[in-house]
Structures are given as structure tokens and as C-alpha cells.
Amino acid sequence: MESRFNLMTNEVGAKVGKRMYNVSLAIRESSLPKALQELVELRASQINGCGWCVDVHTKEAAAAGETAVRIHLVAAWRESAVFTEAERAALALTEEGTRLADAHHGVSDETWAQVRKHYDDDQIAALVSLIAMINAANRLGVITRMQGGSYEPGMFADLSS
């Protein structure tokens, strides 16, 4: 399977990509831990089947100091002993926020209560925004069939200029 379309070589697609990247910078600058951000983005990308995004967030998680064990176990976090209660709350919110169309209840009150227990308001704003942004990025990647495997950590650092 090959990519259908390269958004970054299209004028409109590149403008949208740059703006999405700049929104992501505000999230990156929050107090939400970088490694947790990558795990959240990885989990949403796994659910949505975005090969490009799984590649990006696997490699960025490793670059942020995550261990191979934790990266590999994100897909089975509920059945793993390597995640903290706070990380579990963030991953549950990620799954429920990503699977909105699959669940009649959306984000459960139980999950929201766990998120409120572990994160302050700024971190919650960052977490909710992060989940929304990665789901948008996943859709761009899946629709255009962006292929995983070629990403190098930090390769888009110059987009913010």
C-alpha cells in the first residue's frame, strides 16, 4: 500500500499542517509530562490505525525516555503493571475520547473523576486538547495513507518558524 497524497507538498495541506503543529506546541509547553503526551498520542494512533502516527509517537516516546517495555505495553495498558494510576486515567480518557462513535456514553464520569484526581486544570486542558489534535492528525494520516517507518525524532522542529 502506498500513500495516496502528500499533504505537506500541497500549499493548503502544508498551511494546515503548520497550524496544527503550532497548536501542538502550546500543548508541548504545558506541564503535562512529555513522555505521557507521547503515550497518549501513541494509544490514540493505535486505535485509529495510523501507521505514520504510531511510528512518530513510538520514536518520540523513546526519545523522551520511555522504556521499550512501556511503549510496547501501551496497546495493552489495562493488562499491564507498568503504568501509574495517573497514566491509566490519561489512557482511559484517550480511549474514551477517541472512541466517541463507538460508545453511547462518550467519556464516562468514572474516567473523568480519575482524570480530575490526578491532573490540574492546565494539565486537563492540555490532555483534552492533545486527544483532539491527535485524533485529527490520525484522520489526516489514515485518509491519505501516510506510511510509517521513515520518521526521525525531531524532524519537524523547524515547522514553528
Question: In words, what does this structure look like?
Answer:
With 161 residues, this protein is mainly alpha-helical. It has a single domain (32-150), classed as AhpD-like, CATH 1.20.1290.10. The protein has helices spanning 11-28, 34-48, 51-63, 68-73, 85-98, 109-118, 121-144. Helix 1 packs antiparallel against helix 7 (121-144) and helix 5 crosses helix 6 (109-118). The radius of gyration is 15 Å and the shape is globular. InterPro entries: AhpD-like, AhpD_core, CMD-like. It comes from Streptomyces machairae. This is Carboxymuconolactone decarboxylase family protein. Residues 19-96 form the Carboxymuconolactone decarboxylase-like domain.
Note the main attributes of this structure.
single chain, 161 residues, mainly alpha, AhpD-like, 7 helices
Which helices and strands, and how do they pair?
Elements: H1 11-28, H2 34-48, H3 51-63, H4 68-73, H5 85-98, H6 109-118, H7 121-144
Protein name: Carboxymuconolactone decarboxylase family protein
InterPro entries: AhpD-like, AhpD_core, CMD-like
Organism: Streptomyces machairae
Please give a quick description of this structure.
The protein has helices at residues 11-28, 34-48, 51-63, 68-73, 85-98, 109-118, 121-144. With 161 residues, it is an all-alpha fold.
Provide the domain count.
1
Overall mean pLDDT: 93
Rg calculated over all Cα atoms: 15 Å
Top CATH class: Mainly Alpha
CATH-derived architecture: Up-down Bundle
Q: Oligomeric status of the shown chains? A: single chain
CA distance, first residue to last residue = 33 Å
Q: Report the CATH topology name.
A: AhpD-like
- Report the principal-axis shape: globular
The fraction of residues assigned to DSSP E strands is: under 5%
Give me the number of helical elements: 7
User: Could you give the order of the helices and strands?
Assistant: HHHHHHH
Derived from helix and strand composition plus strand pairing, the structural class reads mainly alpha
- Write down how many β-strands occur, each being a DSSP E stretch of 2 or more residues: 0
Largest sheet: none
Low-pLDDT regions:
none
User: Helicity, in percent?
Assistant: 55-70%
* CATH superfamily membership: AhpD-like
Organism: Streptomyces machairae
Protein name: Carboxymuconolactone decarboxylase family protein
Pfam family, one: CMD
Domain Carboxymuconolactone decarboxylase-like: 19-96
